[in-house]
Design a protein that fits this description.
By secondary structure, this protein is an alpha/beta fold. The protein is built from three helices and three strands.
Length: 67
């Protein structure tokens, strides 16, 4: 279930071991991303890519689009 969280909540979740997933394209990810983020482009996201995540840890998904 998706839930919006603020910056402080993200920092607390990361401190507790959450996984940070950037869903921008690989090119955009390489240009700029949050340190420690895993790149899983939304256009390619599916069951196989989701299996790369640790199901026992929370997942924070983010995307920053400058457009």
């Amino acid at each position: 279930m998706a839930t919006r969280v603020d910056r402080n909540e993200v920092q607390n979740m990361l401190a507790d071991g959450a996984q940070l997933v950037d869903v921008l394209s690989t090119k955009e990810y390489e240009a700029e991303h949050i340190a420690g983020a895993i790149n899983m482009p939304l256009a390619k996201f599916g069951r196989e890519t989701a299996r790369q995540l640790d199901s026992g840890r929370r997942v924070i998904v983010y995307c920053h689009d400058y457009q």
